[in-house]
Amino acid sequence: MVESKRPSNRARHTVAAVPVDHGALAAIHNSVSTASLDATDLAIIRILQDDGRAAFTSIAKQLEISEGAVRNRIGQLMDSKVLRIIGVADPVALGYDAFAMIGLKVAPGIDPQDAALYFRDKDEVTYILFVAGRYDLLVEVICETQEQLALFLREHCYSRSDLTSVEPMVGLAMYKSMLKWGQP
Q1: What is the dihedral of CA 40, 45, 51, 55, to 10 degrees?
Q2: Domain range list for the chain
Q3: What integer pLDDT is reported at residue 22 of this predicted model?
Q4: pLDDT at residue 5 tops 50
Q5: I need a labelling partner for 5 at 20 to 30 A (CA). Which of 16, 19, 35, 106 fits?
Q6: What per-residue confidence (pLDDT) applies to 90?
Q7: Of 81, 20, 21, 9, which Cα lies nearest the Cα of 45?
Q8: CATH architecture of the region 98-170
Q9: Mean pLDDT (the chain, rounded)
C-alpha cells in the first residue's frame, strides 16, 4: 500500500477508512471523536470514500466551500489519523487466487493480542480482528496459489502450540469487497 503524507491537489489513491490495528484505533478514538467532526468533515470523507482521487477543487464545488478549506480539513483529518488516502489493489485481479478467513482459538492462558501480534507482520495477512464468540481471532489471508495458502496454514497456524483451534474458511467466490464503511 502506498500512503500519502500530504495530499496533492489531485489525490491519486483510493480511500481506505479502516483502522489497521488496535493501537491505531485507540489513537483515532483518543485524538478525534466523531462528535468533533462536523457535517463538512463527514461530507468530505463521504466524497473521498466514493472517489479517493477527487480533486480538492471538485470537492470544494460540491460542498460550496473554498479549495483551501478542503485542503486544510483533509490535512487535519489525515494528521489526526481519521483519514488515510491509499492505493488499494484488487488481489483477485492481480492473480491472487487463494484467500481465506481463518478462525483461531487461542490456548487457555494465552492472550489473543500476543497471537494477533504474531500474524501482524506476515505478508499474506491482510486483516486481523479480535472477536468474541466461537473464535478469539479472525485472520484474513491472501495468497497467489492454493499451495501457498496450505503452506501458510501449516507453518503459521497448525504448528503453533498457542492455538487450540484453526478453522480456515476458504473463499470460493467474492461478491463484494470494499473498504468504505458506514455513512460518515
Answers
A1: 50
A2: 14-86, 98-170
A3: 40
A4: no
A5: 35
A6: 77
A7: 81
A8: 2-Layer Sandwich (3.30)
A9: 82
Please write the tens of the pLDDT for every residue from 8-29.
333 333 334 333 334 444 443 4
Contact 74, 83 (CB under 8 A): yes
Please state, in angstroms and rounded to a whole number, the distance separating the CA atoms of residues 174 and 125: 17
177 has a pLDDT exceeding 60: yes
Q: Which three cell numbers stand for residue 166?
A: 484453526
Q: How far is CA 36 from CA 17, 27, 68, 131, 133, in A?
A: 17, 15, 20, 28, 33
Contact indicator for 55, 10 with CB cutoff of 8 Å: yes
Q: How many CB atoms lie within 10 A of CB 132?
A: 6
- With cell 464503511, the residue in question is 181
